[in-house]
Predict the 3D structure of the following.
Amino acid sequence: MLDVVVVGGGPVGMFLAALLLQHGMSVRILEQRSEPNTHSRAIGIHPPSLEALDGVGVASGLIAEGVRIRRGVAIGGGVELAGMSFDSVSRRYPFVLSVPQARTEAALERRVRELDGGALVRGATVTGMHDDGSSVAVDVLTAGGESRIHASLAVAADGVRSTVRQLLEAPARLKVYRDRYLMGDFADSTAFGPDAALFLEAAGIVESFPLPGGVRRWVARLPGAPAVAGADPEASTPGGLARIVLERTGVAVDAGTNSMLSSFGARTRLVERMVHGRVTLIGDAAHEISPIGGQGMNLGWLDAADLVPFILRRLARTGRERDLRSFEGHRLRAAATAARQAEINMALGRPLQRPWWTVRNRLIGCAAGVPAVNARVAARFTMH
């Protein structure tokens, strides 16, 4: 019988598995995808996550591949409203690292394979989970047929559409927002270098982040309600995003250099409980956070890092039920904080009539001019 089955081989599941393998645990990772992820998707790694990733030996390699964002600027009407430095948020990692998720997952997979070449099972669909109080039996469907895997504990890191959450019928609070966004990666035509830029425009926010290889990500709030935005297919094309960026910011983006394009809505889903007997939900399976703010993947890593000591004590039969409840309460509070931060970010990015837009931008400029406020906001943005 295995020590732990991890459902989900994305960045959170891989990281958890690497931590457990380093402690000598027997682990099996069940990943539904047959091939590794090749999309950039999540790109921001915050300082606390870099500390955690260093614990499995992948932080330095990712830093060598990525872009260190040490500063963010807020711009409105072509004028810089505020600047925010991340120099004081962490002594070791005074930056947010920008690196495509595919590279992050690849680094974590390499580490897992170094520790146990047979730990990862791809093309594995979980169809059932049975907790008898002393162990967990997981039903799995692969190309080779159906099988059952037994483990002392199971952890679900299988994302926002979590199969395990559905099998457990875990209650969750869901909130859907009317905000909708379009993001894409293009050749960098700006002079921002390694800085992040937030354009707080009357028609809606535009965000811009550097990526390795002379690429820059652009994220724009789409106009109108979801039904309206969806009715204009041209808006969700590279040319449509380039047009929005130009109209709102004055920056010309070459649509022909687009290498990734994705539209997404915003919602928050927080489970009432992460721990269900011998099964624990972490990452997006437990708490889905609006991508605006870029904290979802990081929350999952910190879930995993906090969970490992409890897993080790439970396997050694020295853990107590209240210890797991303490973990659960701490991580759900962290997720709720991230959800509130995402709501603030979305509110700042919504369209405003000109008089209110002017007032808002002046207030942001004044607040950013107070060092204590500036430092506090920098800490919140970087999860400190």
